[in-house]
Automatic annotation (TrEMBL):
Domain (Nucleoside diphosphate kinase-like) ranges: 1-135
CC cofactor: Mg(2+)
Compartments, as annotated in UniProt: Cytoplasm
Entry's Gene Ontology molecular function annotations: kinase activity
Name of the coding gene: ndk
Binding site for ATP: 9, 57, 85, 91, 103, 113
Pfam families: NDK
Subunit structure, as described in the record: Homotetramer.
Protein name, per record: Nucleoside diphosphate kinase
Active site per UniProt: 116
Catalytic activity, reaction form: a 2'-deoxyribonucleoside 5'-diphosphate + ATP = a 2'-deoxyribonucleoside 5'-triphosphate + ADP; a ribonucleoside 5'-diphosphate + ATP = a ribonucleoside 5'-triphosphate + ADP
Amino acid sequence: TERTLVLIKPDGVARGLVGEIISRIERKGLRIVALDLRTATDEVARGHYAEHEDKPFFGSLLEFITSGPLVAAVLEGPRAIAAFRQLAGGTDPVEKAATGSIRADLALETQNNLVHGSDSPESAQREIALWFPGLT
Ligand code: ATP
């Protein structure tokens, strides 16, 4: 079994899609280990997106991710990391996300793409420690 860190980003909370997204997670069979509504601090946001700090969209991404409440969660299950990324779909909701995925079905823009999921076991461990320091 494996764990992954998932965010329902501020656009998902603002649009009232928390239930829809959690419902898809539960129907897939992933178990919710931790779940919390909070507004990300600048410090946590910078830590979370450290790999993107040299990208042109970094400033905008930080502003977006700290713009309002988001839902942070830890999910558990067999191949949880890949399973959630399949549910989410590719980063660009129109050009990359597969039909039937959260992003393809519910989002239009690459930045405001509703969800985040860890992309590797190393990222998952780092991100779970960042968002839920008490959990492990
Ligand atoms: P996440 O890490 O949030 O699951 P991802 O792994 O699909 O997304 P990354 O390439 O790691 O995508 O980008 C992280 C986030 O930065 C994206 O989810 C999106 O919100 C934003 N982003 C990525 N590329 C762009 C871009 N070209 N313009 C604006 N925002 C972008």
